[in-house]
């Protein structure tokens, strides 16, 4: 499908996300000739600057962050379609002026009144912007479409998420709301379903009869950097688990959908989230480990602890790490633990889904030769994209020695493979009205329900932070979650 003519308005046009992700994504789309022919983008922000100054800044961002090398010709095609407007999100006059400007662009670019409103702003502005768009007749116009793209965090718990949702659905129809979870735009996330449902080999064994446990990890080397102000309110629970980690879990565990259409896929995703075993305070105590990094060494460099970071309280109890053991209470997954782990300031940057198969019955080789390694399938999300499979084979020689061997398919190791960045795919999807890779309200709702139980249990207990040094695999208790279950420890902890 081609992208429709439209004007995209980015609220928060001078922010980090716009410069690092959105503008480079538009450039990449321009490079691939996938931007609509009739298209313009208006960045709005509180600072005063003219179009030219803004374009100049965008030029720098594209040079630094775009996937394709900056080409003057491609840039000039995008450049002239970029505009900047100074704007105060609370001020009605600004909306009136913006609307007039957008109507002018509609004529100039023949964009028919179609709009993408991208909210790349602090969450406290989400509701007010939406309300004002409505008040000024910019949101629900017949004969054209208006789509709302909303960044995370979508609320900070179920209640606040519900309130926000009520406000935005009072203005935009659910079908025009695109809740971003940028993990869904990653190449390998789409591949999870392809691997499962486009092979005869995997689906028949994708259940509790054959799978022993599933480990989902997303480790980062970076700390919170300059985002301390935001992160203090979020922590790993809200920043990573509520959205990205639960999306990974959902796609891994999903039942085959009735079709590949948006509704069928989302319906199945919601079923997984609804089947998640809900944590009681006792289960949180047993199955959830939180951590916060102290000073340590990453890549041979000394780095400060979380409490020493910019805009972080020196007595902060915000978690920068979470590990947990979850269960999905349905027939496919009953009894299979899903170990989830995510944290900042870990030794490597990696996101993977590790599927460990059950041990063989103690007959034949397993009886003769003792312990055999289990089969392991790893879906590698990033930085390497690919699939790894471990199985047992005979070591060449006159004796029968059985050793685990590996097949390792790396999709982005080959020369010339350059997977689209997540935001590129997601923006393109918004332009063509394809919302499969965005979170429907009920997905967000059930994710918060799960997360709220953990947050509530944590409130009643003080953590002993910091409890892992930067550059380590997290607190000892996290490794114990796996080891305590006698599960193979694939990752050092
Ligand atoms: C963001 C979080 O959503 O995801 C960040 O707010 C985190 O804290 C980032 O660093 C990780 O994304 P990626 O694509 O680098 O794995």
From TrEMBL:
State any single GO MF term: glucose-6-phosphate dehydrogenase activity
Catalytic residue list: 244
Q: Which residues form a coiled coil?
A: none
What the entry lists under InterPro entries is as follows:
G6P_DH, G6P_DH_AS, G6P_DH_C, G6P_DH_NAD-bd, NAD(P)-bd_dom_sf
Question: Where in this chain does the record put each Glucose-6-phosphate dehydrogenase C-terminal domain?
Answer: 193-487
- Gene Ontology terms: biological process: glucose metabolic process; pentose-phosphate shunt, oxidative branch
Provide the alphabetized UniProt keywords: Carbohydrate metabolism, Glucose metabolism, NADP, Oxidoreductase
Catalysed conversion reaction: D-glucose 6-phosphate + NADP(+) = 6-phospho-D-glucono-1,5-lactone + NADPH + H(+)
Q: In which pathway does it act?
A: Carbohydrate degradation; pentose phosphate pathway; D-ribulose 5-phosphate from D-glucose 6-phosphate (oxidative stage): step 1/3
Q: Indicate the enzyme's highest-level EC class.
A: oxidoreductase
Cite the binding residues for NADP(+).
46, 88-89, 152
Q: What is its EC number?
A: 1.1.1.49
Pfam families xrefs: G6PD_C, G6PD_N
The residues the record assigns to binding substrate are 182, 186, 220, 239, 344, 349
GO CC annotation, single: cytosol
Where does the Glucose-6-phosphate dehydrogenase NAD-binding domain lie?
A: 9-191
Quote the function comment for this protein.
Catalyzes the oxidation of glucose 6-phosphate to 6-phosphogluconolactone.
Give the UniProt family note: Belongs to the glucose-6-phosphate dehydrogenase family.
Spell out the protein name for this chain.
Glucose-6-phosphate 1-dehydrogenase
Organism of origin:
Desulfoscipio geothermicus DSM 3669
Name the gene behind this protein.
Answer: zwf
């Amino acid at each position: 499908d081609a992208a429709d003519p439209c004007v995209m308005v980015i609220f928060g046009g001078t922010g980090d996300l716009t410069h690092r992700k959105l503008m480079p994504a538009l450039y990449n789309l321009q490079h691939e000739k996938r931007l609509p022919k009739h298209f313009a983008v208006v960045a709005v922000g509180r600072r005063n600057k003219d179009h030219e100054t803004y374009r100049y800044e965008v030029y720098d961002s594209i040079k630094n962050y775009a996937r394709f090398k900056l080409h003057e010709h491609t840039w000039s095609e995008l450049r002239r379609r970029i505009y900047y407007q100074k704007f105060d999100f609370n001020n009605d006059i600004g909306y009136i002026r913006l609307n007039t400007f957008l109507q002018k662009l509609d004529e100039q670019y023949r964009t028919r009144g179609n709009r993408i409103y991208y909210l790349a702003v602090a969450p406290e502005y989400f509701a007010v912007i939406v309300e004002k768009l409505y008040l000024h007749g910019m949101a629900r116009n017949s004969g054209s479409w208006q789509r709302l793209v909303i960044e995370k965090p979508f609320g900070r718990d179920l209640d606040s998420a519900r309130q926000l949702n009520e406000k935005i659905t009072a203005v935009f129809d659910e079908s025009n709301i695109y809740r971003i979870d940028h993990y869904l735009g990653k190449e390998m996330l789409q591949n999870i379903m392809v691997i499962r449902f486009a092979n005869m080999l995997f689906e028949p064994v994708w259940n509790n009869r054959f799978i022993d446990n599933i480990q989902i990890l997303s480790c980062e080397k970076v700390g919170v950097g300059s985002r301390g102000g935001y992160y203090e309110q979020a922590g790993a629970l809200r920043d990573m688990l509520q959205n990205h980690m639960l999306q990974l879990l959902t796609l891994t565990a999903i039942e085959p959908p009735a079709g590949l259409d948006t509704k069928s896929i989302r319906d199945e995703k919601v079923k997984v989230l609804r089947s998640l075993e809900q944590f009681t305070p006792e289960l949180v105590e047993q199955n959830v480990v939180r951590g916060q990094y102290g000073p340590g060494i990453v890549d041979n460099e000394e780095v400060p602890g979380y409490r020493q970071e910019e805009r972080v309280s020196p007595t902060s109890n915000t978690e920068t790490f979470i590990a947990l053991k979850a269960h999905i209470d349905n027939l496919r997954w009953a009894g299979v633990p899903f170990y989830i782990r995510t944290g900042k300031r870990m030794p490597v940057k990696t996101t993977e889904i590790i599927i460990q198969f059950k041990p063989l019955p103690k007959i034949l080789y397993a009886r003769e030769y003792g312990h055999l390694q289990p089969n392991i399938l790893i879906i590698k999300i990033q930085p390497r994209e690919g699939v790894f499979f471990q199985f047992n084979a005979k070591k060449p020689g006159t004796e029968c020695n059985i050793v685990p061997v590996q097949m390792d398919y790396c999709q982005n190791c080959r020369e010339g493979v350059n997977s689209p960045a997540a935001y590129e795919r997601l923006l393109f999807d918004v332009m063509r009205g394809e919302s499969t890779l965005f979170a429907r309200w009920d997905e967000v709702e059930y994710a918060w329900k799960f997360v709220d139980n953990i947050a509530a249990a944590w409130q009643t207990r003080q953590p002993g932070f910091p409890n892992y040094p930067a550059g380590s695999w997290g607190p000892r208790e996290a490794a114990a979650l796996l080891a305590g279950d006698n599960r193979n420890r694939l990752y050092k902890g």
